[in-house]
């Protein structure tokens, strides 16, 4: 037991130290994990043989990643970008893998191996590139949008690739391995072994249908049931159960778990539980992928690198130049101009994390020989190490050239209005939402009451089940891209905590918060809320004005009185807030505050009364000149 | 107040704009008198639109249903109160009141019933205010012209701040009712009513002739 703890501690420590440092130097988290693996593996020798076993476990991170990728792909959105996806992504994958396969065959490899290598190198690093775009604020440029289409296509293409690779297995490798691993193969965790072909096909189709239809119809009642229990950890357990269950099912029928998870993700992309699911799966995915990268780093053969460093470095540079060339041609074809052409070219020139997955998958399926595996892993890793350098090249050398010219960057960002996150879609949040949506602002609605989310969905409002007080939840709701957040939840304490957290983590985000009463509004204000409204204040004022009208006060006079009330309240609220802050350490509403509050009431009373009883009052507005003024005028005229 | 037994042939729309009616000494009297007149639809604009959110649809419908339009208001800085200006800006749309197809108001009569704080002597080219009241109302006269309304002279009370103390309001109100009667029965001499400086004179003269 202690041994496991020790090992886990070493892995975690390496990640905890290396990843933040790598990020600080602008290298991104993927490189951080790789470096961490390098240090605890080949460099310090702290971990060794067990990395292979851990890697198989960590590959489950890839399954989760595909589940999440699937969830990003609403069928509708997918259809919308079909041209870019197929055009940019298809061309890139086709051209790059064809060129690399050709070169590998010229170098004397068999076509199966060459094709596998071509596919491995055709992929780029979604993790590094998307993260870098986000960190550097490039997401909305045309270049980055093109790159995203390509990455997405690649991520989807991985699934057929995973299906294709076993077909490329080399018989001589397979037989060699089967001899050593023969006893393991027989323990049979596959249901379909020994089934006739047609039945096997039927089972596969049935299980895919089960995942799609079940994901659509069964998952909702299940999630609703679990959500209504209000136990957060059970929701997390359900989310994990779902992904693991699908992976297991796919494994049982001999299909790729990644494919099943991806399908389930797409099916759930429209679900109201999407954001909550994402928030729950995301940390597991992140940790497992991190673990995966660490094992890759730990598994790198330094010996191979030192022996063949000339070869490895030249292959790496060759692959990157080739990929960049293909991308440049595609950028030309798709009429990307100026800095965007270069962004697309440089950002995707590396090989990616799915390359590692394919390599290890190909190794398991006896497609690649051991020495080739080590070499390929080094090339993929090295190209990823070099990627931050390419981004720096883009930022320092290429961007400045185009900045003054076309000004295309400003143009690109116009369509990005930023979205609004609305926490709580009760009677209050609904009105706020409707106003925003009617004015074409994108809103992301979160609520922890699944019945309420249901109700909203029935009337055509896109709401999501989710706990907006969870930082992870806010991240998946896109708080980084949001420019505004409206908090209209019923739980007062949670609202205050939320304001504190959001202001700390995203100080630039504007926060509009509904307060329950005066005390609550002070606490929210202290926590840093930008705009506050007490939930009953304005409706009470309206009702008061109506009461005046009903009692025969002229409507315009009632309107004025309402404004007067509001003005004085606003003027005095600062004073009261300061007094409350002084007292807040001790008794909340102590004597000083109480006195000030009474004073406020008196001020309001005085102001409203003066207008009614005195024709020449302190209250201003449409005051005629005094009675003798006309005569004064005439006198002046005569003088 | 109407003494005529016959039902009036024409409908009068009275648009009253007064933001401070609690202080009103002249206009509220006229408005209350008009409210009792069978031919008059009396609209208190500040009561109907205290938040300035004027319903264009409703206001245009009202215009269509009446033959005579009267703006009643106290002069504020030589012009209408803000809400009445807002009413013009919103209701008199292109295609409705003017421009292509905009002849909804064609041939209707239009006049202003105004109270002014200054004495009539102050409203002279050589007086304290440098312009006559009619000159100051020229933007409205031109509004009437472009919307094909027949602009009549303003029905004005000067020195309104002391009218109550000088017991001038009862007479003014009586003349006002007479004006509404003749507008409803279409007995007004339009040529003359267009030329006068102040419509109150119209009846002073007639009364003298009787």
From TrEMBL, chain A:
Subcellular location: Endomembrane system
UniProt-listed Pfam families: Na_H_Exchanger, TrkA_N
Domain RCK N-terminal stretches: 417-533
Ranges for region Disordered: 614-639
Membrane topology term: Multi-pass membrane protein
Major location category of this protein: membrane
Transmembrane segments: 6-23, 30-47, 53-73, 85-107, 113-134, 146-169, 198-218, 285-303, 309-334, 341-362, 374-394
InterPro entries: Cation/H_exchanger_TM, K/H_exchanger, Na+/solute_symporter_sf, NAD(P)-bd_dom_sf, RCK_N
GO biological process: potassium ion transport; proton transmembrane transport
GO CC annotations, alphabetized: endomembrane system; plasma membrane
Keywords: Antiport, Ion transport, Membrane, Potassium, Potassium transport, Transmembrane, Transmembrane helix, Transport
One annotated GO molecular function: monoatomic cation transmembrane transporter activity
Compositionally skewed regions (Basic and acidic residues) per UniProt: 629-639
The keyword Transmembrane belongs to this UniProt entry's keyword annotation: yes
The family this protein is said to belong to: Belongs to the monovalent cation:proton antiporter 2 (CPA2) transporter (TC 2.A.37) family.
UniProt xrefs under NCBIfam families: 2a37
Stated name of the protein: Potassium transporter
From TrEMBL, chain B:
Pfam families documented for this protein: Flavodoxin_2
UniProt KW keywords: Oxidoreductase
One GO MF term: electron transfer activity
Residues covered by the Flavodoxin-like fold domain: 11-173
Oxidoreductase among keywords: yes
Protein origin, superkingdom: Bacteria
Official protein name in the record: Potassium transporter KefG
Species whose genome carries this gene: Alteromonas alba
